[in-house]
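Recall that a protein's primary structure is simply its ordered list of amino acids. Everything else, from secondary elements to tertiary packing, is in principle encoded there. The following example makes that idea concrete.
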Amino acid sequence: MIKYLLAILLLSDISTNAQPVNQHVVLVEYAFSQFLPGNIKMKSGETYDRILNYNIVTNEMIFENNGKYLAIANPEKVDTVTINQRKFIFLNNKFYEILFNSKMPLMLEYTATIQEPGTSTGYGTTSNTASASTFKSLISQGGSYTLQLPEGYTVIPRYEYWILKNGQLERAGNERGLIKIFPKKKDAIKELVQKNQTNFSKTEDLIMLVKSLE
């Protein structure tokens, strides 16, 4: 029992504000449309099975515990998070999904733009953009997160592709970026992109291209 309590303290801030599961909530501010079974592996070796999802606005890994939704309090102590067999690592104060693991892994960064209620521009959109910190204060109370998006707020997801080379993240979302990362394979990159009609907005196309280069 003591070990279990220590684990909960490590992973979360204790909160008395319970948030019941609502299967009808659309989780647009998360990487997955619903919370899924996963595993948290700590650098110290401990592992914890949890129901997890990644908040792309606050850049926090959220897990469900007895009806509450809590953020991992010390993500720098996490080695790997696995959600539905997809792996994430903590780097530069946020989590990145590993799309292809190799000596220079291909990684996906989830980001988002938040539009708050504001004056209409006349084209069905609003003119105000909220900061992540402001948005976080609206969905978190005492460390416990609500799944219901505040009325009038809109989250627009964005995705950035990176390759981790010599400890540094290099942009890999286009042909020019890949040539910079793999300068000796410039001709091969151009040939593969043309041959396969690579669409850099499609994750599966980019994974296939990077695998071919490896």
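DSSP finds five helices and 13 strands in the chain. The two ends are 47 Å apart (CA to CA).
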